[in-house]
Structure formats: C-alpha cells, structure tokens
C-alpha cells in the first residue's frame, strides 16, 4: 500500500543513521551529493554567492542547508517528515540562515515564484516526485539564470519511470512504500529541456575507488534561462 508520504518518511527517519559530527577533515558542516562520506563535488555546483537564497527539496536532517548557511547563503529546507525536521532542529538549533518548513516540495515551489538562486535535492523530493509536474514548478521558483542540481541513484537497466521504493520498518511490520522516478541520463536531459531548462547535464559519478560498493551517483543539472 502507498501511504501518506509523511508517514512513510517518518518511518525512514526512525532508522536513518545520523550525519557524523564532523567530516574527514574535521569540518562541522559540509555538502555531500552522494551516498558515500567525503566523496564527490561540493557546494560549488550551485554557483551561489553570499546573500543568495537556495532551496533544499527534501532537506532531511538539514546538513547540506546548514552548510550553505555557514557560507552566508539564505538556506530554506522543506520536508514532509516531522521526524526529519525534528532531527534538523535538534542538530542545528538556532543555526542562523537556515529556515525549515514542514511542507510538500510542490506546494512550497508554487508559493515561491522567482525566489531562489538555486534549488537542489540530494536523494530528496526530486527523486520522489513526478518530474513532469515538479520540474516546471522548480523552473518557475528560480530567478532567471538560477540553477537546479539534484542527485540520486542511477536507474537500474530496464526500470524507468515511476518505481516502487520500499522503506523497511522492522522485522514485524510491512515496509512503507513510496514512488521514485528513475531515468537514464539522456532521458533526464530531454525531460529537463521539456520543462524549460537550459545548460542541462546528467552524469554518473563513480563510487569511491577501493571500496566494496560499486554503485555510482547520478548528478543532474539545469538552469533557468536568463
Ligand atoms: C532519502 S531522504 C534524503 C534526505 C536528505 N536530502 C539527505 O541527503 O540526507 C529523502 C527526504 O526527502 C523527503 N521528501 C520526500 N518527498 C518529499 C516531498 N514531496 N516534499 C518534501 N520532502 C520530501 C523525505 O521526507 C526525506 O526526508
């Protein structure tokens, strides 16, 4: 059964490990696009300057938004999970520059025309929303020239479009089920262009060398024409 997104994501929050107190170089805040620690590009993908506003779609416990705020960027995080936002508020109490809202991504975007210099999502709401509906709303919420960047797992060969994604709850309970959207890079490029984005790119970042895991990270980007 597909239940409400907030109940499913509260179940996820109950089992998700917390972000480490510091990263590999001892920093308290950092940006991570991938499923691996200390791996991949950072905040530079967003092209932001101090004073800009950025929106995190499905911010979870808020680590990436807190990092933007530490750089002087006005970071807004939205999430449908009460538990995720409670973790974020506990981890970043009174962190200046971070604004958190318990709201669905699409609802927030539709209320925010021409507002953000960047919209990003790390295995977040973009992964779990129909892109044909969400991407035009993101474009409209960006300022001209503003960037969208998102990351998620690469599609499994032959499994494209809406997929069932299971969230395990424990041995005595059924998993929660949400929908996620998977495509190959070429398909993302045409979906982005159809939604009015320019400067589009999509690539798979390889997993860290030397580890046992081989799954890469799909990184997708586009820009609202200026
Ligand atoms: C896998 S977690 C990733 C959290 C965070 N971005 C990170 O990197 O740790 C996915 C998050 O997206 C949120 N989410 C999923 N669908 C959403 C939607 N439509 N609107 C807002 N948040 C959503 C979930 O509640 C959850 O916190």
TrEMBL record:
GO molecular function terms attached to this record = methyltransferase activity
Q: Which Pfam families does the record match to this protein?
A: Methyltransf_25
Which controlled-vocabulary keywords does the entry list? Methyltransferase, Transferase
| Residue ranges constituting the Methyltransferase domain according to the UniProt record | 55-146
Q: InterPro entries of this UniProt entry?
A: Methyltransf_25, SAM-dependent_MTases_sf
Task: Kindly list the biological process annotations in GO that this record carries.
Answer: methylation
Q: Which domain of life is it from?
A: Bacteria
Which named protein is this? Class I SAM-dependent methyltransferase
What organism is the protein native to?
A: Streptomyces spiramenti
């Amino acid at each position: 059964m597909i239940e409400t997104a907030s109940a499913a994501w509260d179940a996820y929050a109950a089992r998700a490990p917390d972000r480490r107190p510091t990263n590999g170089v001892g920093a308290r805040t950092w940006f991570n696009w991938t499923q691996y620690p200390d791996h991949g590009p950072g905040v530079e993908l967003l092209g932001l300057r101090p004073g800009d506003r950025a929106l995190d779609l499905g911010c979870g416990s808020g680590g990436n938004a807190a990092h933007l705020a530490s750089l002087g960027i006005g970071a807004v995080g939205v999430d449908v999970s009460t538990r995720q936002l409670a973790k974020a508020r506990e981890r970043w109490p009174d962190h200046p520059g971070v604004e958190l809202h318990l709201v669905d991504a699409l609802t927030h975007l539709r209320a925010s025309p021409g507002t953000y210099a960047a919209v990003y999502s790390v295995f977040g709401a973009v992964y779990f929303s129909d892109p044909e509906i969400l991407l035009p709303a993101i474009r409209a919420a960006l300022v001209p020239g503003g960037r969208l960047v998102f990351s998620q797992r690469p599609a499994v060969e032959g499994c494209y479009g809406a997929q069932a994604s299971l969230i395990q709850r424990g041995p005595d309970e059924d998993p929660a089920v949400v929908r996620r959207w998977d495509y190959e890079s070429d398909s993302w490029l045409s979906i982005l262009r159809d939604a009015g984005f320019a400067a589009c790119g999509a690539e798979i970042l390889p997993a860290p060398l030397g580890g046992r895991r081989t799954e890469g990270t799909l990184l997708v980007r586009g820009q609202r024409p200026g």
